[in-house]
């Protein structure tokens, strides 16, 4: 048996490692400042790769930063999915999504800073114009999961008969505001702030006040 991987496998592994190093560097930049005007040389230096390696993986900085956002949102969505997989109640799913997102400001600050800097564009579903242009709807982050839960809640009567995309827009704006508060005021109790916001969201969706209060304070699943 060979004691090392064939050259082609080593090359593929090193290529993947270089690409991931560039994505990781871009994620750090997005989380720290959101400034995408940084030079390619600065990105390569942070990733500890050669300048020429950049164009072996990305045609532009825009492509790299898009890949970095997608990578962060994939991690975000996977963390939420794993935590709520045993929950069926649409109200509890919406509540858990809000509360876990607030919690992740402390446990996964890089992801949530990227979301904060990128704004509602990473929370809302694609526009009708983008769908007509043939762009596939994204399955990344919280937005598609929250929209699915909102639609299920409306269909089942758990929520009032509202327009799910409008409700998602309101939820997204409120969540971004909470993230701003969490990062500006780290002394605030994030768990309590998340529960309060979840209760407000549920009441907005038509869940009775006492029910909304109880659901928003159920035991929260652990994040991986």
UniProtKB/TrEMBL annotation:
Protein name: TetR family transcriptional regulator
GO molecular function: DNA-binding transcription factor activity; transcription cis-regulatory region binding
Residue ranges of domain HTH tetR-type in the record: 16-76
InterPro entries in alphabetical order: Homeodomain-like_sf, HTH-type_TetR-like_transc_reg, HTH_TetR, Tet_transcr_reg_TetR-rel_C_sf, TetR_C_40
Pfam families, A to Z: TetR_C_40, TetR_N
Signal peptide: none
Keywords: DNA-binding
DNA-binding region extent: 39-58
SUPFAM superfamilies assigned to the protein according to its UniProt record, in alphabetical order: Homeodomain-like (SSF46689), Tetracyclin repressor-like, C-terminal domain (SSF48498)
